[in-house]
Amino acid sequence: MQLNHPDELKIHKYLEDVRKGKAGMSDETIQRVITDIKESLEKQFRQPKKRKFGLRMSNIGRAYCQLWYDKNHPEEGTDMPANFLMNMMLGDLVEAIFKGILTEAKIEFKDGHLSVLKAGKHEIPGTHDLVLNNRVDDVKSASPWSYKNKFKDYATLKDSDPFGYIGQLAGYATALGVDPGGWWVINKGTGEFKYVSAWDMKVEQTTIIDEVAKKADRLEENKFERCFKPVEETFRRKPTGNKVLGHECSWCNYRYKCWPSLQELPSLASQAKEPPIVAYVEIAKDEETNK
């Protein structure tokens, strides 16, 4: 078992002791977990249906073009599926229970609270998850695929970060005046967990915040600009002549508005019985290139 944080062993030891009947959870900790879950239910089910756009720590790491649509044309985004709300609740439940586990494992941490990031002339609010060993950490629940492939290490997450986790953590660290810690990631499929360190962020933290300030300035100017280009499709390492949506855009709710020619079709190049769905932006006129 590879451990990336000195307190991981304490958590494993506590959970093993609970499984063997040697440890439990105090009434005080259980009530704290219940309170956190209650607050989550109120946030998810009682909040206004529409919230006025504003930069927050939770969105500052996202692409400028997505934020522009959030600000100017939120109605143009594809509707989130009904299960999205359940997914959000699962994330909040995982965070609440994980903090209870940290408490019972005798790991001292400071709970999250509202703070304000000053990026250039802009003030951006946000509420972090926790501060441990004077480093700010986020708690993330992840699908089995994301747990293995996305939350592999800092470099992998930075290479493809459509949800803006890098900017979010850098914002919290700067606002709080502490070092960036990392992400406690819990696999929703198996219950296993790990720590992904963001210590490498320290050397580029100032640059990340400077980029946030520039992004906020551009949003004030309010000129739309695409941040990404379509990608050349390849099949068996050979170009097909088609262009497909980049990975960053594939998660965006505004992809159909931003790319009017977008067609999500079974792969034109694949010869499988059930070809994977591919997001095509341009399809070559010569159909022979797709065989």
Layout of SSEs?
Elements: H1 8-19, H2 27-46, H3 64-72, H4 83-104, E1 110-111, E2 114-119, E3 122-127, E4 130-132, E5 135-142, H5 144-150, H6 154-159, H7 165-176, E6 179-187, E7 193-197, H8 205-221, E8 231-235, E9 238-244, H9 247-250, H10 255-258, E10 263-266, E11 277-282
Parallel strand pairs: 5-6
Antiparallel strand pairs: 1-4, 2-3, 4-5, 6-7, 8-9, 9-11, 10-11
Summarize the structure.
The chain has 291 residues and is of the alpha+beta class. 39% of the residues lie in helices and 21% in strands. It is globular.
List keywords for this structure.
291 residues, alpha+beta, Lambda Exonuclease, Chain A, 2 domains, 5-stranded mixed beta sheet, 11 strands, globular
What does this structure look like?
The protein is of the alpha+beta class. The chain has two domains: 8-221, Alpha-Beta Complex (Lambda Exonuclease, Chain A); 231-290, no CATH class. It is 39% helix and 21% strand. It has ten helices and eleven strands. The chain has helices at 8-19, 27-46, 64-72, 83-104, 144-150, 154-159, 165-176, 205-221, 247-250, 255-258, and strands at 110-111, 114-119, 122-127, 130-132, 135-142, 179-187, 193-197, 231-235, 238-244, 263-266, 277-282. The strands form three sheets. A five-stranded mixed beta sheet has the order 1-4-5-6-7. A four-stranded antiparallel beta sheet has the order 8-9-11-10, with no helix packed on it. Helix 2 (27-46) runs antiparallel to helix 4 (83-104) and helix 7 packs across helix 8. It is globular. The model has no long low-confidence stretch (mean pLDDT 93).
